[in-house]
Amino acid sequence: MALRIGVPQFPGSCDEVDALLAAGSVGDAELLWHRDRDLKGVDAVVIPGGFSYGDYLRAGAIAGLSPVMDAVADFAREGGPVLGICNGFQVLCAAGLLPGALLQNANRRFVCRQVELSVETTSTPWTAAAEPGQLLSIPAKHQSGRWYAPEEMLAEVRENDQVVFRYAAGGNFNGSLDDVAGVCNQSRNVVGLMPHPEHAVDPLTGSADGLVLFRSLLSGVAA
Amino acid sequence: MSADQTFRPAARELPDGTTPIGDAPGLERAKALGLTESEYDLVVEKMGREPVQVELAMFSLMWSEHCSYKHSKKLLGTLPTEGPAVVLGPGENAGAVDVGDGWTVAFKVESHNHPSAVEPFQGAATGVGGILRDIFALGARPIAVLDALRFGEVDSVDEAAADTPGIARSKFLLDGAVRGIGHYGNSIGVPNIGGDVYFEAPYETNCLVNAMALGLAREERMIRSAATGVGNVVVLFGAATGADGIGGASVLASAELGEDDASKRPTVQVGDPFEESKLVECSLELLDRDLLVSLQDLGAAGLTSAASEMASKGEVGLDLDVQLVPRRMEGLEPFEVMVSESQERMLCVVTPDKVADVIAITDKWDVHGTAIGVVTDTGRFRVWDGEDLVGDMPVPALVDDCPLYDIYPEKPTEPIYPAPERRIPDGTDASDALLRLLASANIADRRPLFEQYDSIVQSRTVRRPGQTDAAVLQIPGPAGSVGATGTAGTPAQPGDVTSGPGVDDLHGAPIPGVGVAIDGSGRRVAADPYRGTIWNVLECAANLACVGAEPLGLTNNLNFGNPEKPHIAWQLTEAVRGLGDACRAVGSPVVGGNVSLYNEGTTGPIYPTPVVGMVGKVPDVQRTVPMGFGGDGDLIALVGSFAPQLALSELSKLEGRALPDGLPDWDLDHTVAAIVAVREAVRKGLLASCHDVAEGGLLVALAESALAGGIGATVDLDPFAVGDEDGRVSLFGEAPGGFVVTGSAETLAELAETSSVTVIGTVGGSRLDVRCGAQHADAGLEDLSTAHAALARLFA
Known about the structure:
By secondary structure, chain A is an alpha/beta fold. Chain A has one domain: Rossmann fold. Chain A has five helices and eleven strands; from the N terminus they run βαββαβαββββαβββα. Chain A has helices at about 15-25, 65-75, 85-95, 150-160, 210-220, and strands at about 5-10, 30-35, 45, 80-85, 100-105, 110-120, 135-140, 145-150, 165, 180-185, 190-195. In chain A, the strands form two sheets. Chain A has a nine-stranded mixed β-sheet, with helices on both faces. Chain A has a two-stranded antiparallel sheet with strand order 5-8. The longest helix of chain A is centred in the last third of the chain and has 12 residues, at about 210-220. Chain A is globular. By secondary structure, chain B is an alpha+beta fold. Among the domains of chain B are: about 1-65 and about 225-405, Phosphoribosyl-aminoimidazole Synthetase, Chain A, domain 2 (Alpha-Beta Complex); about 625-795, Phosphoribosyl-aminoimidazole Synthetase, Chain A, domain 2 (Alpha-Beta Complex), CATH 3.90.650.10. Chain B contains 28 helices and 28 strands. In chain B, the strands form five sheets. In chain B, strands 8-10-7-11-9-12-13 form a seven-stranded mixed β-sheet. In chain B, α8 (about 120-135) runs parallel beside α11, α9 (about 170-190) packs parallel to α11 (about 275-290) and α16 packs parallel to α28. The radius of gyration of chain B is 27 Å and the shape is globular. The model of chain B is unreliable at about 1-5 and about 485-505 (pLDDT under 50). At the A-B interface, α1, β2 and β6 of A face α9, α11 and α19 of B.
């Protein structure tokens, strides 16, 4: 049976269709409505980019309180694979499912550019098909993507091998602490990153390097 | 909601001779609102009495230049508007063309100049919001934004500015406008795929912010704005109504700017892209579910304009109750509700049986709809405040009876614009001149601007800004099956989702798309309104040719000064004549547009700036080539009927030379033939790179291709520059119709069968080395790149 992937849609989501398309390359993908607690029995969840609820108050803050995120939190606690992209990463941090917070970029501007990421760990369901240290060319586009964690939390994240992606040398354009572009939770099933792998699934539109995250899901589930 | 509420107000019986309550404010008030005495007299004649407050407010807006086009309508009637691909021409919210396979692309450009001059962030942001609403009001999903920006000299400092002496105004306006455009477009998930920006002194106190949007729809799903069906219900949805932007169209958009513009701040609206993103999804879902008779956005002149235009198109009357309009503040007068320009609102007409369903969908998206009126057979626009009649006007008087004015063009006998400041001495060495040109504000790399925009959301962007002269979108793209239908919660079929092209599909089956460009150098038009406008259209078509796109239609925004002045009337008349001739020459009908007049600041009129946006068909987006040089050893050729001249060039500007009085004629047929030849060569895959020669001339075009490709070139222009012993005209002169292309000897020979091709050099190395006559330009790529990055400091 095909893998089923759910993509929560919030008012203000922008990249939910792109996430749907990318997830659809490895299974059946469907949108989940923000007011529904029902995840419809999906096998994995991708929280898309955008500006959920206008990003008012603080990026991702309100979405973290939505009914669908209640269900996603339960799903995550039970070990279900969850990927948060850009605003999805912000939502997961705001909901306490991932360590750290995303602050405004160092230059306080929205930046859209192709970046190189290195895969720092392959022991997550979203990187299992990648090579350790593999470089991925993936676009980033955000205004609040500077990952930050207090000293103790950073030490813990490092110690537990929770840094999943780093900006490759010289590519840390937003001022993230320790060049961190993406992290996972301690149980490793929840991953968040600021760059957009769903926008790197076709060479025609720039790159296909992001596919490996979605393909990892297949090996992850098989294992 | 109860049936009672839904159908309030029903059309009401009105005894003969009933007139609205309240006194007539009179002529002096009418003049303060922008009506002339003779216009006021005409209103009185059409009404059979003096208008009361609500009526006067509504007439003053509907009869403003912004809404009535009273000084330009006669001229616009001369433009070609018909073509094989045209689905919707001028007159609807936006134009639309057939791009094949049943898909339609709607597009339009609009200005938000004066609001941006007063408050650049919100002015530019709401400019984007407004043009996007025009697109989804047609039932099309917005798929792209482009923008054309014009500011004063980038390093200007205004020591005499009224409020803020010493302000670096252009830097401030540029920063605010770019942030505003990014804020709105990025937040709503519509990619910004291109645009242009120029810095010229005449825009110092009257900047231009023009935004163009594209939308995608199945042709059968497009919806019109005409209100029809007596007894149908008028539903308002989106943001609540406040006091923002009251009188924006008449006070701000239809008068010259002055010294006390800070006091006009309350007429600038504030945008909320989150509200609009919900409006987009809600509107498209309403259409998906076939719940609407018609749909219209609220823009300039708010409810007044939206409702009366809908009634006029449907040849019906409307009864509307302002008490039913949801407010965001207390104490609004009825006339304020009618003219408020609060953003992010839509108006639709619904059959009575579907009102409850419509309201339910608007509730789902938190853009709560409210029935505020009803379609009548009276032909009159009646405004109620609960039980009180507060306005009663014949719809045609409001919409159609504004007098149209002749303008009286007269070519000025003296130059209008002073010479620019000199920045380099005459005879500057070619290498130095190249570096200065690359670092000059009109030529420097636009990356620091466009990096602030999301150019890739929606997964259609095949060529990002800076990679090609025109943006390229795949249509419908992999999201077509999901995105264009707008139904959230209805997942795509897995088959659709996986049908996007993968690695193996590249250069397999053709992937259709469109090329889009926006152009409009005001300096050319200031020198010669007729030929300058033709040049701008040719450049737009040339940009499309570089990606293999054949023009399907064009939208334009005519940014000019006060047309009541003879020299401005002359600029406008000549430019429109040029626009018409150019559109006929390149085979691109005008499908819509906008006119922005009275663009005069404290320093005089702006450069006349007709901005043109063109959409063209690309049969296979995989065949589009970059503007950057690619393969080591590729041959470089100059293609086309290129007859450069230094007058008007960017080099002449740096040398402080005044505009020439007129441009020499060029062979329009030959130029168009070259554009067609290049387009076909790109479509056949003959070229490795393609870039049109524009500002800065041939040498700058070569440098731009070298920088974009990250590889140098060695060029000898003498085969082209016969008779130009000095060489500067060939290196730095500008004219339409030239392309710098690369390819192999064989492919260039094939292109030579249909166009003039002169091989001028070879790609390779890490330097750009160009000889021409007595001139020799030689610089390393790193130095070129450093110079080209000059705009980055503006955003530091």
